[in-house]
Amino acid sequence: MNELIKDDGQTKLSKWGNSSATRIPAKLIEELGWKDNENLAIKIEHNTLVLKPISKRPTDIHELFAGWQDDGKKDTEMDWGRSQGHEVKW
């Protein structure tokens, strides 16, 4: 990853309103697989600032199955085993 940083591998912390901001080089963002406007968790570990993408959880069934491809196999019912809780009796 270090070979992707063409400058001296440094960035500058600048004032941005009541907070501070810095720029992350595009090559590093690409290497990490991050996207624009991605939500990040931020914390301090061993006196080092750590940024980590927040995994987005689906908010509805449409988001949950957005990438699902139907294989078309629906010839039998699935046996889920014996009831374990308060399942509806059929």
UniProtKB/TrEMBL annotation:
SUPFAM superfamilies: AbrB/MazE/MraZ-like (SSF89447). InterPro entries: Antitox_PemI-like, SpoVT-AbrB_dom, SpoVT-AbrB_sf. It comes from the Bacteria. One of its GO terms (molecular function) is DNA binding. Pfam families: MazE_antitoxin. Coiled coil: none annotated. This is SpoVT AbrB-like protein. It comes from Lentilactobacillus kisonensis DSM 19906 = JCM 15041. The lineage of its organism: Bacteria, Bacillati, Bacillota, Bacilli, Lactobacillales.
